[in-house]
Amino acid sequence: MAASADTIAAVATPFGEGAICLVRLSGPRAIEIGDRVFRGYRTLAAAAPGQQVFGRAVDAAGGGVDEVVACARRGPASYTGEDLVEICGHGGVVVTRALLALLLEAGAVMAGPGEFTQRAFLNGRMDLTQAEAVMDLIRAQTSLAARAAAAQLEGGLRSRIEELREGLLQAIAHLEAHIDFPEEDIDPETGSILRQRFDAVGVGIAALLRTADRGRALREGLRTVIAGAPNVGKSSLLNRLLGYDRAIVSELPGTTRDTIEEVIDLGGVPLRLVDTAGLREGRDAVEREGVERARRHVETADLILHVVDTSRAPSDDAGLPPLAGRAVLRILNKSDLPAHPAWQGVDGVALSCRTGEGLAALEERIAAATGLDAAGAGEALLAVNTRHRDALRRAQERLIAASDAVAAGTAPEFVAVDAREALEALGEIVGAVPAEALLDRIFARFCIGK
Predict the structure, then answer these.
(1) Contact 10, 449 (CB under 8 A)
(2) Are residues 242 and 329 in the same domain?
(3) What is the model's pLDDT at position 92?
(4) 338 - beta bridge partners?
(5) Phi and psi dihedrals of 236, rounded to 5?
(6) Cis peptide preceding 76, ω within 30 of 0
(7) pLDDT at position 318 over 70
């Protein structure tokens, strides 16, 4: 990363052919450098903050490169908290590169990945959870994922973490009073109050930890495996859910020999659909490998769509391997045909992949099985990521240790050590105690120009 005293520049739009391109500058010399390459009816320095000024981008000799619109914002009232200039030109690889080159020649340095957002964090324009939400919003694959990222960008997670930190700070203040007056032990009444405060913070932490699976599902998609015996309609189901013919469908058992993976948006929830080979003893080496892959996918799935053919009696091949605690939704396919008596009273979703009847009911059941249907109905969308989860778990462990220490009559100095470590773990989430290596790891995931 460049030092904060440098003025950085980068292209903020994807390279390629398009209507416009956007090049950004941020730093102490942003407006000065912008005016070196911009010629309009007024300079950027003289324009009102955020005012769009039409003009031309010119090279050192005064030759025109492109007609552009530029604006400047002065720090701290900008995205980065620094002086910021944005220049919009015509889209295209040649023009975009030329505009960036002009700014670099005029004294700017190339920005690193995520450096604009990192400067926003370092300058107090956002906390670490909001900075991460920027990337989540860019990468969102569904409307629900975008809503969760937007809620975090607005400070939803930050507010919850700050509430927990405030509650913990109050408990630590009680401890500090006893440390300052060592002749007084922690009496039972005070000890009970401390444990109540630790427990209250612990309840809040546990509630956030329960959103970790939701966060993973929204960011990465729920791994949803379509499994069952051969020729029950697994590939037909994949095609129905996708809305087009992706997999080959045949009456011959064993047509699908390898896995097929696609992503769909189901009510705002991204599903990573995996169509697998029929679960049976393979007839040859290729089919045996396909069946083995199918079993491995089933064992690692978040949700299993177990397809059965209700027009014929259940077979030995129709079952799944033992899956303790795994979410399984049985799909009673071929409902357009007369049902075999053995399927009477069996729980599942009736569906005809041939006619599409029952597909809407199936989609509702899948949404309910994901646990995200309530969120889609308007519930507050908090969804912690892996980094947040790890920090929350450390805070939870230290709080339990602190509460146990109070119950055991341990000296307040030792209780305070555990409580402060819990507070520090919570602070890591919002960036109150940032480590340089942590920041580099987070912002390295960003695109250049953001």
Answers:
(1) yes
(2) yes
(3) 85
(4) none
(5) -65, -40
(6) yes
(7) no
Final residue before a domain boundary, out of 75, 93, 126: 126
Question: How many domains, the chain?
Answer: 3
- Given this model, what pLDDT does residue 56 score? 93
Whether 288 has a pLDDT exceeding 80, the answer reads: no
Lowest mean pLDDT among 74-78, 384-388, 446-450: 446-450
Q: Is the pTM of this model over 0.85?
A: no
Same domain, 326 and 411: no
Q: What is the mean pLDDT of residues 141-166?
A: 87
User: Can you tell me which residue has the tokens 């969804």?
Assistant: 383
